[in-house]
């Protein structure tokens, strides 16, 4: 009469296993896995990363925050402008790089090569602009923007610029100074492999 209520032997441990998995998931909630820089590749994997003041920085976003990576490569007034934006937007309050972005502007590049950032610029004036790199902390407010200048240098090395496959890849590093202050930051071991 009650034989239909007997649970077959292989399924007897399922409730215990489900409970154990739930407990482990709850214990690990809020613990971020160790961040590791991606390999420097050139195949359009949409990966990027760097070290910001020695800490591994990877682009990431949360739901509804938009894309973590963006590339614009376009011909404007006879020049080939390249803009790269890498964003990190997480909801982990303990993450010191929680709302940060790394950006590059190159006014004219049409083949792989190295662009040096060594001139003072205003990143908001785009007429006759020179190449620059910047790092921005959006939290805490107000924004803290660090930009390359004549004293804080860097470089972006484009190893692949493929207009047919629409891939741009390379490496970067730079030192930058906070606008309006003497505070500085260091971005090293940077790499990107992006589609546009």
Task: Please explain how this structure is put together.
The chain is mainly β. It is globular and about 75 Å long. Helix content is 8%, strand content 43%. The termini are far apart. It has one helix spanning 14-28, and strands spanning 47-52, 55-57, 69-76, 79-89, 99-106, 113-117, 132-137, 144-147, 154-162, 167-178, 184-195. The longest helix is centred in the first third of the chain and has 15 residues, at 14-28. Strands 1, 2, 3, 4, 5, 6, 7, 8, 9, 10 and 11 form an eleven-stranded antiparallel sheet that branches. The protein has one domain. Mean pLDDT is 86; it is low at 19-28. It has one helix and eleven strands.
The pLDDT mean sits at 86
Helix/strand-derived class?
mainly beta
SS elements, strand count: 11
Can you summarize the main beta sheet? 11 strands, antiparallel
In total, how many domains does the architecture comprise? 1
Q: What percentage of amino acids are in beta strands?
A: 35-45%
Radius of gyration: 23 Å
Please, what is the oligomeric state? single chain
How would the global form be characterised? globular
Unreliable spans: 19-28
Q: Which percent bin holds the helix content?
A: under 10%
Terminal CA distance reads 67 Å
Count every helix, treating DSSP H or I runs of 4 or more residues as helices. Answer: 1
SSE ordering: HEEEEEEEEEEE
């Amino acid at each position: 009469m009650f034989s239909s209520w007997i649970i077959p032997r292989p399924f007897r441990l399922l409730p215990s296993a489900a409970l154990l998995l739930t407990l482990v998931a709850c214990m690990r909630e809020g613990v971020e896995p160790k961040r590791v820089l991606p390999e420097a590749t050139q195949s359009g994997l949409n990966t990027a990363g760097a070290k910001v003041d020695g800490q591994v920085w990877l682009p990431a976003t949360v739901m509804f925050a938009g894309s973590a990576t963006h590339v614009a490569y376009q011909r404007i007034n006879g020049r080939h402008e390249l803009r790269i934006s890498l964003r990190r937007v997480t909801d982990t309050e303990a993450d010191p790089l929680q709302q940060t972005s790394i950006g590059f502007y190159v006014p004219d590049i049409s083949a792989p090569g190295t662009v040096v950032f060594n001139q003072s610029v205003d990143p908001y004036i785009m007429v006759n602009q020179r190449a620059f790199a910047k790092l921005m902390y959006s939290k805490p407010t107000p924004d803290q923007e660090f930009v390359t200048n004549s004293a804080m240098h860097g470089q972006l090395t484009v190893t692949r610029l493929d207009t047919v496959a629409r891939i741009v890849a390379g490496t970067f590093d730079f030192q930058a100074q906070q606008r309006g202050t003497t505070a500085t930051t260091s971005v090293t071991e940077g790499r990107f492999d992006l589609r546009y």
